[in-house]
Design a protein that fits this description.
The protein is mainly α. The protein has one domain. It has helices at residues 2-5, 9-12, 17-27, 33-51, 56-91, 98-108, 113-125, 128-132, 136-165, 169-202. 31% of the residues are buried. The model has no long low-confidence stretch (mean pLDDT 85).
């Protein structure tokens, strides 16, 4: 690992995102993609179970099902959002290859290891916390971990896009923000269409 990249990307991405992503795209931009997609998907799966208050009876089944499909949902999310990032990057004359942008976005998701570790600890100590959400200190702790991981992910993405696109910090920032807005609108519209289709078939 260290001999191939000249560093360990799983360690250095946290504090040296530009140097790390440069080493990755120069050697193997596909490296770690499936694992990072899995991290994103599994973290999202735990969050969904927590937010939507799954019942005790369905908790284990829902958890296992979500973990199984999580990597594939993570892959779809990374491909779609990388494509949007490539489009918004062109607004600022960015010409990075798609695989480099995908690598930048994927490696920013490494911070979601933090909430996964949190969920596993909670699951081992008291799984009822995930189901009930009735303990304010726990809710505050969960929110804090998500805030830390999300802000850290954004900083890594900001610096990684800056590196692969050869942007200034501000160009990198605005290309990400515009991509986020477009992605959010697209997901909202997709949700409306999907809801309409489901309601149409279950009438």
């Amino acid at each position: 690992m260290v001999s191939k990249f000249g560093l360990n990307p799983w360690v250095t991405i946290w504090t040296q995102p530009r140097k790390t992503i440069r080493a990755i795209v120069e050697n193997n931009p596909k490296y770690g993609f499936f694992y990072l997609a899995s991290i994103l998907g599994i973290s999202s799966a735990f969050s969904s179970i927590y937010l939507y208050k799954v019942s005790k009876e369905n908790f284990l089944t829902t958890l296992l099902l979500n973990i199984i499909i999580a990597p594939f949902l993570g892959i779809i999310s990374l491909y779609f959002n990388s494509w949007i990032l490539q489009i918004t990057g062109k607004i600022f004359k960015g010409d990075a290859p798609f695989m480099h942008i995908r690598a930048a976005l994927s490696w920013s998701k490494v911070t979601y290891i933090l909430p996964i570790c949190m969920w596993l600890i909670i699951l081992a100590m008291s799984p009822n916390i995930i189901i009930s959400q009735n303990e304010p200190p726990t809710t505050l702790f969960v929110s804090l971990i998500f805030l830390i991981s999300s802000v850290w992910a954004f900083i890594i993405l900001l610096r990684a896009i800056q590196e692969v696109q050869k942007f200034s910090v501000w160009f990198s920032f605005f290309s990400i923000i515009i991509a986020f807005i477009i992605s959010s609108i697209a997901m909202y519209l997709f949700g409306i269409v999907l809801s309409y289709i489901v309601n149409f078939f279950i009438r």
